[in-house]
Amino acid sequence: MVRKTLIAGNWKMNGLLEDGVALAKGVAQEVKKVGRKDCEFLICPPFTLLTSAKKAIKGSKTMLGAQDCHFAEKGAHTGDVSPVMLKDLGCQYVIVGHSERRTNHHESNELIAKKAEAAIKAGLKVIICIGETEAERDAGKTINVCTTQIMGSVPECSTAQNTVIAYEPVWAIGTGRTPTTAEVQEVHAAIRKVIAKKLGRANANKMRILYGGSMKPSNAKDLLALPDVDGGLIGGASLKVADFMAIAAAS
Ligand code: PGA
User: Which helix (H) or strand (E) holds 150?
Assistant: First the structure.
């Protein structure tokens, strides 16, 4: 089963115009240089940088994504951005359900499913994030939590073509800590089983499941070599061209 590796950078709330454009250009240049056909590259800058990042990556195979969207197409939603708007300005992807949004904005599985469905209908691909907290892991609930999140936040219209899952243990995000490779593989394999239950075996076999949470050049090789890990969603290390590309090179 060939699943193309996806190396995705989640810039979060980082980057002003000048350094954001420089980062996007730097990634695009390197992506052109390595010219890989077995690996896709995606950057997800903040909304404010999407238009300039799009210009900066023009002509390279680097793809553009946003970090969140509303579920409505338009209307009275002050401060929100719709999937149609993201598609209109050239995004191919949008991240939904990141744990920072689940926590800081109290986003429920139901809301995330609505966002994902709207994004897919607008022609975007979605990266749906799931993952347990440290307390949940300590209580042995990791697989249960991930199962509930998948069942609740992956919409019925998801397929292997329009949806990517990112497993991001909350306690590993930005902390420098990661689960062991055996633990990551165990969760990814379990996630694939749940996807099979929800969307059928064919979709499950083809759907990419990324690992996220303190992925860096030094641990990427081991993580990306796992049979059910199909790429990475990278936060901190995606803000440096060399680190981002070193992670890709490890795949
Ligand atoms: P990190 O973040 O790589 O900085 O841990 C990953 C993410 O939250 O997507």
Answer: helix 142-153
Our mutation pick for probing the ligand 1 site, out of 132, 171, 234, counting the most ligand atoms within 8 A of Cβ, is 234
- Answering whether pTM is above 0.90, one says yes
Query: Could you read off the pLDDT of 179-199 as tens digits, one per residue?
Result: 999 999 999 999 999 999 999
Contact status, residue 51 vs residue 43, Cβ threshold 8 Å:
no
User: Each residue of 116-149: pLDDT tens digit?
Assistant: 999 999 999 999 999 999 999 999 999 999 999 9
**Index of the ligand 1 atom closest to the CA of residue 172:** 5
Which region holds residue 177: left if phi is over 0, alpha if psi is between -120 and 50, else beta? beta
One-letter amino acid of 150: I
Residue among 7, 12, 44 whose CB has most ligand 1 atoms within 8 A, to mutate: 12
CA atoms of 107 and 101, how far apart (whole Å):
6
**β 231-234/93-96 pair status:** unpaired
